[in-house]
Amino acid sequence: MYNDGALVGYDGTSGQPRWRFPLQLLPNGCGVDDTRSTGTAPGAVVVVQCLRRVDWLHGDSKDPLLVGLDAMTGQVLWANDQHWFMQGRAVLSPAGVPVLRGDDLAMLDTRTGLPRWVRPLSEDARCTRDQQVGSVERGVVYVASCGDTAAVHVLDGQTGDDRTIQLPPPTDGTPTDDLSYELAATDADVVAFLVQGYRTDYRALLAVRTGSGDIATVRHPGYPVDVASFRSGQYPGPVLQLDDGVKPEDFTNLYLMARNLTIHARGVRIYQAADVSTRQRWAVVGDHIVTAAAMGNRDQNYAHLLVTVSADGTTSQRPSPCGRDTGGIVAAPGSVLVLCVRGKNDGYDVLGLR
Questions:
Q1: What whole-number distance in Å separates Cα of residue 28 and Cα of residue 24?
Q2: Domain range holding 263?
Q3: Which of 153, 191, 275, 298 has the fewest CB atoms within 10 Å, i.e. is most exposed?
Q4: CB-based contacts of 170, cutoff 8 Å, min separation 6
Q5: Domain count across the chain
Q6: Closest among 345, 352, 338 to 305, alpha carbons compared
Q7: For position 190, what pLDDT does the model report?
Q8: Is residue 222 part of a domain?
């Protein structure tokens, strides 16, 4: 987390600081733009991306610098100034750091920061309007759609070998060239795409198992994509909320990626706050799904709640530890972290639950 002009690594069990990386060590004028990590295991790396303003011939632009830190000690391991932009979730797989530079896709080695391989995006991908690159357990994924075909490209994290999985056309006859494919969530080897029509009301959610190539169509996907969360890598992992959760008299649909299972959580109203990313709205804790972004009804004075959902959709609730503030939730080794939003400019308080 960022605190008092430094990136600080905390112990997930005790909440005590482990290390500090002062941001003044970055080059002058290079503003922090993004931070991602490969986890908490020994050998894990935290990668900081800062942007330098560059005056190119065609106007101002921003040039990225990547710095790799040891996640356990904060030691600087490497710096890469080869103009790569980080891709994938905020918590990346140990396979490497996916990066994009123009039409070139690469995987950086986590311990050296050097490209393990570089591959050009497929020709079909170059006619996709907004290219999105995601990370899965052992590599990198993106959708290439052009004309009447669409396919998921899966690149091996170690070798860069490219394998394609053809996506099925809509069953209602909607032309493929009218569709957009937005990355909604990833978990292990599963990646979910929200498919929508540009000129039609077609909408579907496709869950693709990149290992086997199996594809599941999820019913009633709602609007699960949060563009701001995607850009920062904060899109969901194990659990994806499929609707806005504002009708507690019905239910909130929660999709478990690994199990290809939709749970109807009854009586849960979710507070839709822009300062809580989609990744932080739900967490899988043991056999349950937990949120700190729930809101009570009028009889409860619309209080913020901590809600636990069981596999059969039944729920239990208690007052949120954030009080009257919105909360996000993250499962960490040894504890569950609740992130309490303390106003627009006041940052977060992080509470550890066991």
A1: 8
A2: 236-353
A3: 298
A4: 176, 179, 195, 202, 204
A5: 1
A6: 338
A7: 94
A8: no
